[in-house]
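WP5 quarterly update. Target: 4-hydroxy-tetrahydrodipicolinate synthase. Source organism: Thalassoglobus neptunius. Length: 297 aa.
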Amino acid sequence: MARKGEMFAGLTVALVTPFRDGAVDEKALRGLVDRHVEAGTDAVSPCGTTGESPTLSHDEHERVIAIVCEQASGRIKVMAGTGSNSTAEAIRLTSRAKEFGADGALLVAPYYNKPMQEGFYEHYRAIAESVDIPQVVYNIPGRSAKNIEPETICRLGELENIVAVKESTGSMDQASQILNGSNLTVLSGDDSLTLPLLALGASGVVSVAGNIVPTDVKAMITAWKSGDVAEAQRLHHKLFPLCRDMLGLATNPIPLKAAMSLLGQDTGDVRLPLTQLSESGVESLRTTLEKYGLLSS
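C-alpha cells (predicted):
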C-alpha cells in the first residue's frame, strides 16, 4: 500500500532549542540545521517536546520555526511543531509555519484538557481544513494525558492533509492497527522502538538520539530498508544502550542537552520547570557516551 506521508520517511531529528542568556541562541540553531544537512538527516522538527515548546513564548515559537525554515532553504525538510491544546492556537501556528515554508506540521495531541475521541477528531479536522500543509498527528499519551485511539487516528487518515502519525504510545498493537486500518505513514516516536516499528511497516523515526548520532540512526533505517536485517539489528543493539541510559536519566531534553554539552555542542540550559542534570547524572552520562565511543575515557 502506498502511504500518504512518505515524504517524511527516514530520519527526522527532533531539534533541541539552544538558549543563551535566557534567549533563543539563533546562531547555534542555524548551526544545528547545517549539521543535519551535512549528516544526511532527512528532516528536522523544531518546537516539539525536545525543543521545549511548552516554555517558548509565542514570538519565540514562531521565530524558531522561521529560522529553521530559512536555514534549511530547501536543503532538508522541516516538520514544524505547531500543536496546542487550543485548536485556534494550533491553527494559527500551523498557518504561520506554512508561511515560513515548512514542509509539514507536527501536531501534538491536545494536552491537559483531555478531549473525548470526537474532540480529538474535530480538533485535527479543523486544523486540516484550515491550513493546506501536510500534517502529522503526534500521539504521546505519557505527556498529553490521553491516548488518541487507533480507530480515531485511522478516521483522521481519511482527511487529505493528515498524512502521518508520530507513534509514541509504545504499543505495537496500536501501531499495527493504524498500519492495518489506514494509509497513514507511521513514524516511531521512541528511538528504542524504531526497528520493531519498521518491522511492522513504519517508515522512519522522529528521533531524539539523532541529535548526537544522526548517521547511526539513519544507517539503521537504511539497512532495514535495503533488506540487511543483520546490520539493522547490529545498529539497533548499538543504539539501544545509549538511548536507554541517556534518556532514562531524566526527562527529555535534560540529558540530551547535557550530552550535547559534553560532546562540545553546547546548546545552553533547559528552561524551568526543567532543571539541569545532577552531577551524578552527568557522570553516568559521561560513562554512557564513553561506552558508545563518543567520548574518550
